[in-house]
Every structure is written in structure tokens, then in C-alpha cells.
Amino acid sequence: MRIKCKTDKGMVRESNQDYILTLKGKNYVLLITADGMGGHKAGEIASKIASISIRDFIFKNFSLYIDTEELIRDAIISSNKIVFNKSTEDNSLNGMGTTITCCLIKGDKLYLGHVGDSRAYIVNEKGITKITQDHSFVQELIDNGSITENEALRHPQRNLITRAIGTDKHVVVDTKIENIMENDLIILCTDGLTTYVSSEEIFEIVKEKKEDAVFELIDLANSRGGSDNISVIIARKEDEK
């Protein structure tokens, strides 16, 4: 598995509350993007704690789970408890939270865990497929037919998410299993990218540059305003022979 990743604070924000994490284990590859939220440095703390706690949970329990989808779900639920407890112990961190998009790749299977509006895509010769569902106010409006996807890009509440890690004692985690093949590209990104770059544009750039597209995608988002932190991970499945 070839992996390139980068996180950037963008052109407007004073700090970067995103956090990215990659891990190549003996029998798996783990990819995580997190987009933190909260005053002062609370969002930065939430995204880091959540990502590291998921990594540690999977590392410690990987061999104990028969069901890998359940492993992902339990890892994210555990991270939610850790972030929530941290926010209640420290008044300066009260209300902090983060999105989480997590892919655990084992052989020809991708196990997805997801909370929030960061995204995961698979790119191959067939095109680009979004494998996450945004947990956001505008996605709900799209789903019920109130607005179109193009209108959602300009909606004043487009950054309002309906589900996050750490903001409540309990969290509902979306999980999914995808088949992946040689040379498939897995993309994880925060909304700092997708606010400015369409899925069609992501596809065209990634199709040409493969995992090296990370840098061009971030530069493009910044050139169009860069009003948020931007994080991108691209992993390419290689022939294991």
C-alpha cells in the first residue's frame, strides 16, 4: 500500500484543528482523518485524542475480533467515550468534538467507520465513488428533496453537522465493507477540500497523479479561498505478490 498524506491550516484559520493518522500494521493498513471543532484549541485536542485512541484500540484488539466491522465500530465508540469524558473533566474543553472517517484495509477488503462530514472515496477505472454519507444539515435537506447538491455547496449552514465524536455520551457510527482491487485509490479528506473541489475534479486529478494528487488538491482548495483546514490522505493498493 502506497500512502501520501498532508494536512494544511488553509488560508484563513489561525490554527489547524484537523488531524490525520496512517498506520501500516502487520496484517492491515489504517487511515484516519478527523476535523475537530471547539473553542481555543479544543477542536485540535478532540481530533488528536479521537484518532490516537482509535489507533490504539485497533492495535490492541485486532487479533481478538473475528468481525472487523465490529472492531471499527467499537474503536470509534470507545474514542467517543474518551473525548466526551475529557470534555466534561476540563471546562476549557467543554463541547469539543470531531468528525472521524476511518478506513481499515485488510487484504482486498476495506472496513469503513464514519461519523460527521469528512469523506472517503474510492477511485478506479470505473470512476469515483463516495462511500460515506455526510452527517450534516444540508445532507438532510438533499435527502428530503429540499435542495440540490449544487445548492448545498452555497448553503449558509453547509458546515453544520448533525453527528460528531465527543459531543454526546453516545454516538451512532456508520460502518461499511467495500471490496478493493489492485491500483484502487482510497481517498480520505475533510470538508476543507470538498467545499472547494468537486468529486469530478478530485477524480480527474487523482486519475492522473495517483497518490501524489494530495498536494495538488490542497493547493487547489487554497487557491479558491482555503477558508478551512484541509486534510487529504490517498492510499493506493498495490499488487501483493
TrEMBL record:
Pfam families for the chain: PP2C_2
Listed name of the protein: PPM-type phosphatase domain-containing protein
Molecular function via GO: protein serine/threonine phosphatase activity
Segments forming domain PPM-type phosphatase: 2-237
Domain of life: Bacteria
Record InterPro entries: PP2C, PPM-type-like_dom_sf, PPM-type_phosphatase-like_dom
Gene3D superfamilies registered for this protein in UniProt: PPM-type phosphatase domain (3.60.40.10)
